Structure formats: C-alpha cells, structure tokens
## 1
Amino acid sequence: MSQEATTTGSGASTPPERRGHGRAAVPPGKASAQARRGGAPGEDGAAGAAGAERAEATGPAEGSAHPDPADASEHPDAASSRTSADVAVSPDRPSPWVRGKRVRRVRRVRRVRESPMGWLYTAPALAVFAVFTIGPTAYTLYISFFHWNTLNAAMSRYIGLANYRSLLGHSTPSFLTGAWHSLYFTAGTVIGGTALSLALALLLQRGGRLMSASRVAIFAPYATPVVATSLAWVWIFNPQFGLADAVLKAAHLPQPLWLQSASWAMPSVIVYSLWHEVGFTVVLFLGGLAVISPELGEAARVDGATAWQEFWHVTWPQLRPVTAFVVIITSITSLQAFTQFYEMSQGGPVYATTTLSYLVYQEAFVFFDTGYGAALALVLFVVIAGFTLLQRRTTSRIAAAA
Amino acid sequence: MRSHASRRRRTTTTLLAAGTALAATFTVAGCGSSGQGGTSADGTTTITFMETMAASTQKTTLEQLTSAFEKANPKIKVKLEVEPDYATLYAKETAAVSAGNAPTIGQVYPDWAATFAKSQVILPVSSFAGSSTPAQLSGFYAGVKNELYLPDGKLWLWPFNKSVEVMFDNPALLKAKGLSYPTTWDQFATVAQKVSGGGVTAISVDPGTASGPGAGTTWLETLDYAYGGAPFAKDGSPQFTAPTMVKALGYLAGLKKSGALALGTDYPGETALAAKKGAFDVSTSAGYYYEGQAVGGKFALGTQDLPAGPAGKANILTGTDLTMFASASKAQQNAAWKYMQYLTEPAQQATWAAGTGYLPVTAKALPDMSAYVSKNPWVTGAVSALQYAKSEPPYGWIEKSEGALAVAIQDVVDKGADPASALADAQRTAQAAKAAG
C-alpha cells in the first residue's frame, strides 16, 4: 500500500478548518517534538511538511489543533502557552508579562501538588496500596533472606542469599524450567491470542444480527469464572469420556492424552486460556477497528489493493497501538496465570505445566518452603516488571511510528 | 527550599505510613482476638475442630456423633471447621497457627504432625491426658497404634479416620470374560490384560503431581511393600532406587504397555469403573460410599482385599489422626481430650465405620457393627489389614518425596522413561527434601 494512497484518503476526509488551526499555539520548543509525533500542519520547513503529511494520514487525533492531554498535564507551561492571550501577544516569543504569569501558574500548581491536603485526599488509596501491595512486597523481600518457619517465625533462620542461589539447583522443578514453561505459555497465548482475536474482530466488525450474537458468544467465556470453566475443560480433555477425543475419534484422527500427556498438557491449557481470554481482546480490536479511517481502505481498494494487501498495509498499521496494548496485557496476565494450572494440571504431568506462578504457590503454600517461595516470587516480580517496561518502551515506539 | 519541601514530603509520608501501619495493626489485632473459643461466663467451653468431612455420609456421621457428644456434655460446645480437602486443610491449619488463631484440635497426617511438633505448635498427648499410655491405647489395632508416635518416641496423635487400600471391581465384567478376582499381583496383571480392550481399560489411577501425590503413588508404595521393600527407611531416608521399587514401577509400566492401565485425574478409576469402561479401582475403604454412588446400581460393586505379592500381603494405612494445638487453654484441652476419647470409644467407632466406610480403630467396636459386617464382608479383610498395614515414617519431607514418586510414575507410564532412571531422579529430589528438613 502506498503512502500516496494514504495521504489522498485522509486529505479528502479531514475538515480544513481543523487542520489549519493551532499553528500559532505551538511554541518554538514544542514544534520539533510535535513534528516528530506527527507535525504541526502548516508549519514551515521540511519537518513540518513531512509531519503534516503524516498528520493527515492519521486523521485529526494527532498533530492537529487538539493538544495531547497527557502532554498538557505533564507540561503545564506548554499547556498554558496555547491560550488565546498568548496568541494575541506573540505567537513565537511570549512577553515577560506572559512568562511571569506562566511561572506564577506553575508555582500554584506545584503548591497544590505539594500541599498536605493533597496527601490527605490520596491517603485512602495510598493506605490500601501500602497495606495490600507495598507492605507485603517488602515483607516478601525480607522473608526471602531467611529459612522461614511459617508456623513459628521466631524459629526462622537468616541465610542471606542462599534462597536465591538455590533457584537454579532446585529439582521440583528448577527456576529455569518454570521460566521456560511460563515463556511457552506466554508465547502461545500472546501469539495465538493476538492472531485469533484480530481475525475474529475482523470477521465480527461486519455487523448484522448473527455477528452481534457471535460477539456475545465469544465474549461470554471471559465473564465466566476460571475456576469453574477450567474444571469443565478438564472433562472435555478427559481421554476416556471427553468431548475433544470424541470429536477426534469421529474424524478418525489420533487422540492425544491431553492433560495426561507431558507433551500435550501445556497446549491443552493454552487452548482453554485462549477460549477464556480471547473475548476480551476481540473487544479491544473491535474498538480499534471502529475508530480507524474507513476512507483509507476505500482508497486502497480503488487503487486495486487485494483484501490481504488492504489488511496488511492499511488496516493493521492503524491497529498497531491496540495490538501493542493487547500484547502487553496478554503477556502480563499470562505470566501471572495460575488458576487454570491449579485446576487443570497442578503443574504436571512431569512438571510440564509448572510455570513460575505455580512454582511459587507450590513452594510457598504446599511445601511451605516460604523463604524459597518468597525468593521465587521476587524474581517473578522483577521479570514481569522488566518485561512490562520493555514492552511499554516498544509500544511507545510503535505508537509513535503509527 | 528544595530540601525543606522534600523534608516536609518525607514527614508527611512517614506520618501517613505510620498511621496506616497502626490502623492495620489494630485491624489485625481485632481479627485475631475474636473466635479463639474458650470458656464463657456460664462455664461452657468451646472447642474448634478443623476437619475435612465435607460431604456425603462422612459429614452427616461426624455431625451426628458430635451432636450426641454435646448432648452428653452440655458444658462443651464443638465447633466443626470443615475444609474441602486435605491440601486445603493443611494450608488452613498452617495459616491459622501462623496467625495465632489455631483451632483446638485438627486432623493431621503424621508427617504434618512432625512438622508441627518441630515448630512447637502442638502438644504431646501426655501433656493433656495425664499419661503417656491412656486407657484406650492398648485396644487399638497394632498398625493404628504405631502411627501415633513421632520419632522422639512420644505419643503425639490420637486416631480418627483410618482406612486401608482395597480393590473395587465389577465382578459381572470379569465373569463375562470368564475371569475371577486375582489373589496375587502377577495374576492381576494377567486378568487386567484380558479384561482390557473394546473401550475397557482394566484400571485407571491418579498418580497425583509433585505438589500432591495421589492414589496411584500409594499403590506404587503398596506394590513396593508387596515385593518386600519399603519406600522409606525408618529414619525417613528414601529408598526409591531399591530393586523392589524399580520392579514395582516396572509392573505399572507393563500394565500400561498391555493396555490395562491409564493415568488420569479426579478419581479416574471410580469414573471408569462406574461407566463400565474399567474393571478395577484401587482406592481406600473410605471410598466405599463414593464408589457406590458413582455406580448407582448399574451393577453389583465388588470390594476386595488387595492381591498379595512375593513378600505376602501388603497394605498401607491411610487416613489421618487428631492432634491438640498448643494454643488451646487448659479448659479447652480438657474438653477436647474428652471429645477425642469419645470418638474412639467402641460404640462411636461402630457408628463411624458403618456410616463412613472408614475402619474401626479398635476390635472392640466389631460386636457393635455385626449387622454392617455381615452386609459388607470385605470389612473383615480390611480390618485384619490394620494389623499389618504400614505407615510411612513421620518426617516433614515425606510428602514432597512422594510427590517425586508421582512424577516418576508419569515419566515412566506416560513418557516411557526407564523405571530405574526415573526413580533415580525421584531419589535425588527426595534426598534434597530430606537434607532441607
């Protein structure tokens, strides 16, 4: 799909008055940044022209007269520079009076932020966060340095980093085995879930009564409790009485042992997880599809693009921010997934479904090796946090590119 | 200016954190001080009993016995705290002790009791019974009595729900193929192979997982005993690489190879037997009512003694005992001890056994349950197994070690691994568990 077609499509749909507004509102320092994000339409120079082209391509949401509210909140000075008073005095260089006003306003905002009253207002949320998240996390870190006696804390023994050193040496199974299983599950649900939900969303966006019913049917599993539906799927996967085997048998296909097989147990849990979770990500993609510009697709079709070319070069690029969000959310929930493993396979057979989350539970709450379990939990926390930060950074780049 | 602002922020944050911590402390303290049970103003002592008799006749029979006890002892109130399964029970007991809110008494396996005793959170029987050989003790079956002692030689436990392994079968299915119930494990392998096929797999078991060994693992241990071995030495050392254990696991692999064994979860043997897709189910006598419910009159359910091995008859004592938690007040200890003795009296044991499928812990109960025994002749054989049934030594690492055995079963039966190699892995895991204590 060509850039030419993209520009043509957008240019036809964007109202001129919206594209032309806001020029004077951009201070010099902000201009280059905005140009990188999509540009200030009408700005002189190459960067501005290129930015304008991209801004038109993405529609009025970016690079238009409507400032990014996130930017406004993060940079109050930038936000205040977009007032009509500034425009009247000087679009390029505010007067000392304006600068003084801006400084006073910034100070006022800071005072509000630093006021004890602010702390008072946030105290309930902070208290809940401190008691249920920060406190337990700090306590987990503390416990991880001990051979912890859950029954009688006074009999606990400080062992330094020994719990962390034994992460690789444990055999029920080792941390690395658990990490590999987590990665396997995450890859299956992220790649499979994203592809499947995108495909379903493309199918369902066509509308109609049947499609509406299908939307409800696809979303319904997401609203069901994992603990109940995973038990139902245990029976679906039952090698002797299960529906899955009955279907395969009817089709004269080989029947795996599903949850009883070390090779098939993880794919079975992935299939269940996709069934349960895909409704949510389909809704996200449907939301994304609802706001993308239909004119771009029309233009592509006019230019002779096939359905696949239209999807690959026009539709999906516009869905990149949604895709990135889906990938992040699915990755985090997959790394934290526990209930389906607890209900369907209990980490077996032969540790085949012992993910890091399950391993933490097993060590801390079955074997009551609490110190080691705490060390595992901390490492899992760091892995998820690192993964999330990495993906956030990647997402920002993708969003900027889109 | 900057340092002043940040100091003010720090002060505010510290105050908020301190306030939050204080509020949390009061909240936790408030929760902890309630529900301890004890003696009320009118002299009624309340004791709490954490147990797993959550369903079927087990629940109703325990409630019936407890109600009768309260009626006979109006100054004692027994609060039953029911948990859905043993894993939850252990987690709840541990959490309750950890939170300083332990029940008065609870069901425990001997290896749990060993962990509790090591952490000084339970009491030896002598501390509340006034004797290390209470009157009823001599009347218990030998296998039952042996299990009540921990390695320090002290009596820590009191028997509660005891059972042994039995074999449930579908006699009609065997008869249709001209077969009868085998008396040795070698014969069992032959019969199992012959009865399998055409949608029938002779026996299905759940070996459990690393975090929870199941009935299949108990069966493997029973086979080990039947071949003359023992999964653990008296000091709790695992003996998984012994030839008897290798042979026992090889026996299961052979059954699988001949199409006579399937692994599953959620009582697969019971389900298959009831659906006429299985001929046998190895389970405990406590499963008697559940098996009957599952079969639902579709055929006459058979209940048999386990076949014998080269070393003769072997069985494993299953079920839990009772222990007294150290936080109980003196009044609660006295009341709970009265209740514990009441439950093991012959009349109550007869009611308990007939109502639940568990076995009476004393032979003195048999005359009171003659009608039940004549209707269920298998009880006689099962009760006699209480004399020779083995118990695993009571150490904290036993369950984790048995979990390693469960993994070995899966590795061999499902993945076709070599039994000796799989058991060597299990041995390493068990030894590590023992070393960690």
## 2
Amino acid sequence: MRALQYVSMLFVIIPLTALIVCSLIKRSRQNAAFYLLSAFAAAQVGLALYGLMLFNSLNISEYSFGFHITQAVADVFTLKPASLVMLLCIGLVSFTSLLVAYKTMPANKKLSYLRLLSALIIGMNGIVLVNDLFTMYLFIEIIGISSFVLISTTKTEEGLESAFIYLVMSSLASIMLLTGLAFIFMRTGSLKFEYLIAINNTSAEVSQNALTYLSYILVISGLLIKTGAVPFHSWLPDAHQSADTSVSVLLSGIVIKAAGVYCLMRVTDIFGNLYAIRLSLAILGVITIAVGAMFALHQNHFKRILAYSSVSQMGYMLLGISAGGILGFIGTMLHIFNHAVFKSTLFTNAAALHEEVHTLDIDKLGGLQKQMPITATTSLIAFLSTAGIPPLSGFWSKLLIIIALWKANFIGFAAAALVLSIFTAAYFLRLQMNVFWGQTPEHLQSIKEVKGTIRFAEIMLTIITIAVGLGFPFILLFLEASGII
Amino acid sequence: MEVIITICLGFMLVFAIVAVMNKSLLKSAIALALVSIFLGVILYLLTAKWAAVFEVSVCSGLVTVISISAISLTHEEKEQLQKKYMDKRRMAMLPYLLILCGFLLVFIVLTAKIQLPYDQLAEPSTETLSEALWDNRQADVWGQIIILLTGAFAVVTLFKEA
C-alpha cells in the first residue's frame, strides 16, 4: 500500500517539478531541460506500468489520495487502473513528442515548448486523477491554454489562425461545460463523481428531470467539441496541419483523448444507462467515422489526412462508450492506447518526411520506399494497425468495440463500424501509394533515411504496436482469469 | 433584497452590452469591471461572501489593471482604430435596443414580483477560508496556480521577440 501511495503522488509531483525546473532554467541550458523532461516522461511510463502491477497484486479497484499537510485534507485525487492506462499513454506520447521536437523545433522556441509541454502534462495527469467534475473542468482549461500556445509557437499566419479557431471553439465548449455543471450543482449540491453516481442511481427526482437532461446535453456537447467529433470537428484539421509536427503528435496522440474521450467516459459513468444518450452517441460515432474517412480521402496534405483519420478514429471510441458495459469500456481504453501509439508513429513519419524532403504535399512525394525504408515500413505497419488488420494491436480494440456493440444490441452500428473500416484502409492505401510506392521521381533520388531521435521514435512505437498485437491474447486471458470479463 | 438583485442583474446586462459594443477598448475594459462589481454584489447578497470578495478584487481589480496596461501598450492610433470600425455603423442601433430590452426585463421582473427560489438558497457556510480552499478544494488551488503560470508562459511565448 505504501508503494502505491508513493507511486500515485509521483504522478503529481513529477510534472510539477518539471514545470518548476523548466521555468527557472536559462536558455543556454535548455538541452539539459530537454533531457530531464524526457527522463520524466519515460519515468511516467515506467511508474504507470508498475502501478498496474501493484493494483493487480493488491487486488483493489481504486485508490484515493491527497497531500495531507494538515490533517483534515480531503482525498482530492483517485487512481484507478483505467487512469493508469491513460497515464501510460500520456507518458509515451509526451516522450515521442520530445524525441520529435528535438529535431523539428527551432532552437529559440525549445524552451517555450518545454514549459508549455510540462503544463500540458500536469493538465492531462490532473484530468485523469481528479474525482470532482469542477476540478476536471479546471484541468481541461489548463490543457486548452497550453495547446493554443503550443499550436501557435511557430507564429506562422496559419498557426495563429488555427489556434484562434481552436480558442473560439474551446470557449464555446467551456461555456457549455460550466453551464451544465452549474445545473448539475443546482440539482444535487455536489460535483463529486462518487456522490453523483450514487444519487443518480437512488433518487429518481434528481435523475429524471428536465434540468438534469439539459445539463447532460450541455456537458456532453462541450466534451464533444474537445473530442473533435463530427459536427464539432472544424478546428481539428487546421490545428493539426499548421502546428509543428511534435505538437501534432501531442494533439492527436493524447490531448483530444484526455480532454475529450476520457472525460466523456467519466461523465457517462454518472448518467448510467440512459438509452437516449447511448443511442445519440452511437449515431454520432458512426457519422464521425464516415465523415472523417470521407474527408481524409480527399486531402493532399500528409498531416491533414492524419488529422481527419483521427476524427474518424474518435468515432470508434464514441461507439465504444455508447456500447457501455465492461467490454465496451475495455475496448475504448484499449483503442485510446492503440490510437496513441499508431497515430504517434504516423505523425513521427510525417516529421521524418518534413525533415528530409521539406514538403508534406503528397502530390510532390512518391516512391520513397527505397530511399526511406524504415519510415515506409513503420508507416505501413501503423496504417495496417489503424485499419484493424490482424494480428496488429488496432485489430483487437476494434474487435472488442464491435463485440460490445453486438452484445448491447446495437447490431446495425456494429455492422456499420465493420463496413466503414474499409474506408480507413482506402485512404491509408492512397497515402501509402502516393508517398512511398511506385516510381521515384528525379528530384527525390538523393533523399536519405532520417537519422537520430526521429528514427528511434519510429522503431520504438512500431515495436509496441506489434508487441501489443501479438501479446493481446495473453492480456485477454489475464483479464478473464481475474474475472473482469 | 430581490429588488436589489434584479436591479444589479439589469445593470450587469447593460454594462456587458457596453463592454461588447463600445468602440473604445478602454471604455470596454471599464464596463467589464463594472459588470464584475455588480456580480460581486449579487454574490454577496446570496451569502457567498468569499466568492464576492474574489469576484470584486480579482475580476474587477486585477483583470482590469492587466487589460488597461495591455491596451496602453497597443501602438495603433486611435483614429485608425475608429476608422476600422466605421463600417460597423449598420449595427449602431443594436446596443440601444439591447439596453432597452434589459431595462424592460428588469421592469417586468419587478412588477410581476417574481420570487427568488429561497428554499433552494444555501445556508451561510461555516467553513473558514483555509478549510474551503485547502482542505476541501486542494486540487482546484493547484489548478489555479498552474493556470496562472501557463498564462504567463503563453504571454512570454507569444509576445517576447526571441
């Protein structure tokens, strides 16, 4: 128990230390801060894995903690296995982003990037750990502020414009969230998750009420804007395209999931099994998958295709949430992890292309398989995983989500999810053919494979994709043995 | 008490509209500060005393100081700014209309004697400030500190020429 106490506190202390160090360090020593933050991100991955092991050996389902400097302090944070999986993703994606930024970020922007990244990590760790709706909103705002500035760090015109669009959309989300929270507070007098779940299950007066329904709609719409689900997705492709690639890795890899999907999962926990909400989330999910994939088919910018692909994959997570039940929950968590890994791989490939070829317009690229074999292979594996081809990791999470939908009697949606994954294969096949396969044009003959940290990140993430895919039957067996499914 | 609250709400509406529609940034900032002061009064009357203190000191004090100092740093000439907004003339009647609507709303509420839901009003809290902020809402305090830090980094990143 003592070990768990230290591990859980470290998830708050580590990013705070990083933030303090990064804000005090001089520009001339920024590389030291770079190494330190990378070590911290890697440590978070290790700690999350260790925490999962501890949870398994102690046989508990959650652990609450706070910083008890005075005696009467309430436990303000709660650690669960699901939050450990999120913390693992946060550490992994931040580490990847740091590896990419080491090459792509201009030297005079590195320190700002490090400071904002540590604030972003605090925000995401906070969201994952809190047990109160209002605190969750506060940490969503931290994520928001740091991502606006991260998108516009390079100060290009497109960067500033897309950051502004994101700012406007986010303010809309904040207004909706706050109003919704105020309504919930009016009805119940508390915003603690535990209390809300309990009162929703026991008191029909609270749970079946026009004001409560209105607050659900407001909160869910606010979170859907943060997720980038389809009617609210307009900010996402611009932001991903114009930001530095290391920032795109963060945005697509983890930010939209921590501030969007994960919060949505926690909020739907409160509402219980309201059929109307689950049905509307399922419909939105299918529309999101379809529209994201359609748009991705018609783009010519490498990162824009990846951004629309992220929109499309968010749809699968919405479907997982709508299915509900333990299977849907595990499927969604696993898809969050898998998407973090393979989308980071693809954005790292984009960084490699940008470093070597200096363009991401897929019409100007072609036949790079021979020149950049590692980038081409890792990209192929990541896209096969995204499309859900067995035995790669993406296949298992999509399978779980579809089985969960089937069990929840959403048979039509399960079929739609299955059919629409063909589109995923279609737009990635187009990407792969235009960039890596076929004849190499004259001006691309002299291109060399990318070196250093970016190559390391590509290989590391691909190994994780394959390893999780091959090892997943064992994870399933373990879950079955411990009685979870 | 309802009368004061309703009148304060009306003033808030009026000054909010002034803040959005005024051509001068300085006057907008002052109008925004006035909105916060009236909100502070309402919070005080609704027994949320600490919230009222923070609303008045931070939102109408600190934020106004920051925005006015930011406005004083802008270089664009006043006439140029005004010229820029000249073509917005077709909206000229809108603020007056909105202000009129605000007064009308206050009038209707006062004459119709709409009661505030007093049975839902919270009991005055017995918590001390340290109990409320540190013991029960510790995570929020951390969050606020980090938001301020992030805001400072944001300003440095965006406005400092490296």
## 3
Amino acid sequence: MSEQKSPILADAAPLPGASHQTERPSAVKRILGGSVGRNLGLVIALVVLFIIGTITAGERFANIDNVLTILRLASIIGVISIGMTFVITAAGIDLSVGSVMGLATVVASLTAVQLAATQTSWILMVVVALAVGAVAGLVNGVVIAYGNVVAFMATLAMLVGARGLAELISGRRTQIVTNTGFLEFTRGSLLGVPLLIWIFVIVAIAAWILLNRTTFGRRTVAIGGNAEASRLAGIKVKRHLVMVYMLSGLTAGIAAIMMLGRTTAGTSTHGTLYELDAIAAVVVGGTLLIGGRGTIVGTILGVLIFSTLTNIFTQNNLDTSVQAIAKGLIIVIAVLLQQRFATRDTR
Amino acid sequence: MIDDDHASPLLEVRGITKTFAGVQALKGVHLSVRAGEVHCVLGQNGAGKSTLIKTLAGVHQPDAGEILWRGETNTIADPLAAIALGIATMYQELDVVDGLTIAENIFLGHEHSTGGMLKVAHANRLTRELLTRLGHGDIPPTTEVGQLSAANKQIVSMARALSHEAKLIIMDEPSAVLDSGEVSNLFRVIRELTSQGIAVVYISHRLEEIRQIGDRISVIKDGRSTASGLAVSETPTRDLIKLMTGREVANVFPDAVPVPANAPILLEVTHLHLRGHFSDLDFTVRAGEIVGLAGLVGSGRSEILETIYGARKATSGSVSVQGKVLRAGSVAAAVESGMGFSPEERKSQGLILGEPIYKNVTLSTFGRFARGGLLNEGAEKDATRGQIEALELRPADPERPARTLSGGNQQKILLARWLIHGTRVLLLDEPTRGVDVGARAEIYALIRRLAAEGTAIVIVSSEIEEVLGLSDRVLVIGDGDVLAEKNASDIDESGVLDLVMKGSAA
C-alpha cells in the first residue's frame, strides 16, 4: 500500500482516498476565483459601461477625444489610488491623501516658490510638491508605526491638519500658476496623448513592478497578511510601514503637480473627498481592506469604472445625485462579491 | 468486559457514510456509547472526526448507515433535533457570546420569561445550580462571559448543555485551549458529569489525556472505524498509534547524539531579565545541543524564548550568538546573527496563511534571492522545492497556500524557513502543537537531525515528556526561575513536576 510506505502523504492529504485533483477546485473555478477572474469581472463591468455610454450618448461618448477625457479625469485620482493600494495592502488606510494633495498644490504655487522657480527651473515646483507629500506621509507613518496610533485616526488628523495648514498658508486664496515652463510641461502632450495620462501610465507601471516584483512589494503584502509573523521572520515592520505611508504621500504630491497643471491654480480646496474616491476605487478593484492582497491592475480598472460612469452621466446631462447613488451601489456590489471570494479563500 | 450486548448503549452509530462533493469523508463509522462513560474518539487530522461530530449534532445528514438513540432508529434532522434528543456538542471554537452574562448565555434561545419579560433572577438561580453541579458554584451567574478564561467558558458551555438536559455531551478537543492545571480541572468536571449518568464523547489526539480520562476508545482512520469500544486500560499506546496511523511507531523520540565537550558555544544568555516574567537567567547552548525548557504554562518559558529572540525587549542582561552581543528588542538583529524562532501560535505568529508555501518559506530570506530589489521568484521556488524534498513537506507544491496544509507540514514550513536562512541557533516554542501523533515523530527526527548538523536548539513544550525525550539538557522553569538544570536522562516527568510544585510552594 502506498499509504503505508509514505506516511507523510496520509498526514498531508485530508483524505488519502481522494486524489489530489478532487481536492482542488476545478480549473474554471480557480481562474474565476483568482486574480485574473476578479480583474475579468471588472473588465466586463467596464465594457458594459462603454456599451451603455455608446447607446445613451452615441457619437459624443464613443470617440477618441472623449476616451482621452475619461482617462484625463481618471489620471489624478488614479495616481492617488495607486498610493492608496499600497497602504491598504499593508492593512492600513490613508484618509489624508486629498488634503495632502491640496496642501502640496498650495505650497508649490506660493509666490516665493514660483519666483524661485522662475529664477532657477520649473522643476523646483515639482520637487516642492513631492517633498510636501513625502513629508506628510513620513509624519503619518511615524505616528502610526512608532506612535502606535490607529491609521484611521492618525491620517484623519492629517486630513484635518493639512487642510487647515493649506488654508492658513494660502489665506484661502486661489494661487494662479504663472511659471510657463511648468505649465508647458504639465499641459503638454506626447503622441497626441496629454501628459497627465502619461504620468498616470508611468506611475501605474512603476507601481505594478514595485508591488509584484520587488522586495518592497513582498514586504508590503507580507505585513498586510500577517504583521506579527512578518516581524518574527525578521522584517522591519515599523520602518517599512513608514515607507509605505511616505509612498502614499508621494503619490499625493505627484497628483498635486498634475492638478496644478490641469487647473493652473493652487488652492486649499483641491482634493476634497479624494480619499473616499481613492478608497472606493481600490476596494472595488479587489484589494482586500483587511490587507495582504493588493492589485494595481484592479485599482486602475476601479478608477476607470468610476470615471467612465461620471462621463456617461455628464454626457447625458444627468443629475449628479443619481450618479452618487450609482457609485454607492457599485461599491456595495463590489464589496459583497469580494467577501464571497474572501470566504471561499478562508474555507 | 467489552461487550455491548449487556449494557444497552445510549447511542449507537452503525456504518454511517458521508460524501462531500465527491470526497468521501466517512466510509463506514461505528460507535457505541454507554450512559455514564467517557468514550474517546481518536483519529489523525482529516480522519473524519469533525464530520462524525457534525453528523451526531445534526449539522450533516449521513448518506447511509443508522443512528440509534436509546435503541431506536433516529434521524437527527438538524441541530435543534439533536438538542431535543439530549445530544449537546461543545465545539473547539466555543459558541458563547462574550457580551452577555453567564446566565444569559446558558439560556440563550430558551429564555425563561413571562409575557416577554425576562425572569432574570430565576435564570440566575438556575445558573447557580448548574454551575454548582459542575463544581463551579463560586462563579457569579451575572459575570460577563468575555471576562472568563477559556477554561471557564467551557464550563459555561457545559452548563448550557446541562440546561438542555443533555444525556450525551460531545467535546471536540476541549483541552486544546487549556493549560495543564485547567485540564485537570476539566477532567474533574467530566467525572462529575459521568457520575450523574451523562455520557461524554471526548475527541482528542493527545494520548496521555485519553489514558487519564477515557473509559473506552474508538479509533477512526481515513473515515473508517479501525477500532470500536476498546477498553482504555487494556490497550497499549503502541496499538492505538498503529490503529490511528496504520503503521508501527517503534520509538517516537530519536536517539540523542552526544555533544562533544569542545563544541563551540553558539548561544549565551547572561543575566537576562524581563520585568514581571523572569530574572537573572543564565545558560549556554553548544553547537549540536538541544536544551529544553520544562515548566507549566505561565512559568515564563515562552517569554524567555521571545526575549532571547528580541520579540520582547529585555529589561536587562544580554544575549549573544557566537560571541556577539545582540541589540535588545530587535528581532531583525537576532535574525541577522543567525537566530531563528518558531513561535507558539504557528498560524497567527508564524505563517501568512493565504500566501503560498514558497513565500512563507522565504519570508526571512526573500531579499537574498533578489537583485537590486527585484525579486527572483523562480529561485525562491527552487530553493523551496529543495526544502520540500529534504523535509518531506506535503503537498510538494510550492504554490499551495499555507492554509491548506496540516499542522505538521505547517511546522515544516517554519523549519524550512530557518534552514534556508542558515540558522545556527533555533528557538522552538511548542513545535508539535496541533501536529498529530503520526507526524510528530517526523518533526522530532528533523529537530534531532538539525542538531546533529551543528545547530544549537532551545525547545519549549507544554508536554514535559516531549521536552525530556528530545533534549540533551533540561532547565526546569517555575515562576520565572530556573529551578534545576539536569541532563535529560537524569530526570523524568514526575521529577520535573516535583520540582515545579516545590518551586511554586517555596
């Protein structure tokens, strides 16, 4: 009997009578339950939205210019959502992204900064925006990781605080961007595609590699999956969490640059409620709110679904309140589906 | 004596089978339980114990076979029907509501009320009676259950069974969450129950316990009864293991290899102190040596390992590996120095259950496989396959989620992690908890092999027999003090217990 010859087999397989094939779910189930299947669902949702858009708005919806409009709409919140994906994958949350972005637009468009940028290079404005984002993320991370403050509260405090700081610095006035180099760069386009979209694409590709192919990404997933096991395996959990929140702040800084380009103005009201849109996109995309599983592709699809939805409503001159209801429904349905997958995983 | 014809059984199960989605979980199980006895059901993980319990509790319906209750054929259609018959089940995850009081928990679902108003005082009085029957009349019925220890939650669960006038109580591994003091209390309560004519079906894979509490034993292997109604006192352990695993277990513990006197000291613990747990701890471990820490739960043994590893920050004192002093409270420093740790709670502290085997195996070392921060998953999987082969880890598929593995194989993941790391000092906390008897011998052999290859090992286990059988040298720990240091061959289990008792009396 093979059973007696290989004792471990009996230990490993719950029922040695059953072959390994029967223990595993069928190939179809596995694919649908796996990451490809989950993304497939989002792609189908997106296709359905496109069909609806084409039927209701016809030519106005289905043309290249409108697709670029959707993508441009998606790009800023998309970049923020990508940073958020890392935070949520690490079992955290960052409520401050919207107001940190607002703060970064204000600081980068201060008269003094713009003046210095004119004398040196417009790159200075970029660096300032990124620095503001990174420093805010650093503060979030240190308070959360070393202060042991719950991420929800720490970043809520940053949300309120950063918004207040932005108002204080700007005196609640809108600061117009006059630096021509900066505007030429951010409002430019390459191969007929606006630069904002290129930035989104580049950030997305970099983030995909970072999450799926680097030690940084592996640590992020491991910490989100089981922080204690990660710590006991020798991973410097606190230090890594600080870096994850800095990354999120950095993407808020990138988003600020994009926002300054799109609106040619810095103001403390930029990015209001962006944190909710970002979290919604991430969760709809299939990243688990409890951490341990994150998907950049899913997040991007989530963002595209929401921006396409907005576009369809705009094209048809529909009430934004109805749009909000539709958004709410999508979030609930996505989370319900996600829970079903989650319970299947843990069974 | 083992003759069912004379004493008519309370519950009789005849050849039940059960298939789930093409997998046959039960292939013919027989069980005969008499009133007033403790009937132990033994079986390895996956043998079908849980399915059997759930069938008796009315959760599952058997595909074939008969269940007789007091001599009459019965179908237990649902859990309510089981309760109505007098069959109560205590699952491993206790189904008590933390926010309610003991009395509220006991009468949950069958509250005493008049016109919708709860009769609180009445319920409390009945609860006190039930608790007294279980020898725990000292616990106030109005205590919130969330405040209770796992052991007392079990008492509540048993009192609830009594409130339903249960004739048969099924206990699924009740000792898994208890320490040894609490286990002896549990046994006292079980004897109380059986003296009142209640039958207990006791599910466990701890053979020592079955010896203490059981009257008769039935064994299940691969969904089939391999023995039914054996008298505990007349069945040698060796036979039971054979019935459970289908093979002979000649000697569970591998022979110790003498440690050469000139073997280098790899781990040195000096005046280590953790406030509130232990103080002034000194010991050394040589290459190739296994040192065991023996003591009861709460003696500070787990805290000692965690402090050595840096998972807790020592109040004072030092730990050095190969002569180099480690930074206190830094796991990363310990790992870097070549120390590895297999924690007590494997699932919550050791593994990322949703991740595949290979990512769990390389959790401490994936950086080594990376170049410029870019992971090399192919190399990780290759290294994992090497360990899978060396440790006979099953299933031999690096992509399988860690969750789907048995306890023994999950333990092997942790050993593989530290083997890849090249650990010189290995700290093992409860290395065989949740590992069934058949797989234990393998884990023991692996640990011994690691020592033979020059690793210094410190092992903690709540099973004193395991510490003694596996170690070269034993430190007996009581209340955070080293009560004695002996060669493992110079002391036996009762010797350790004597020392512990004396130590705590002093």
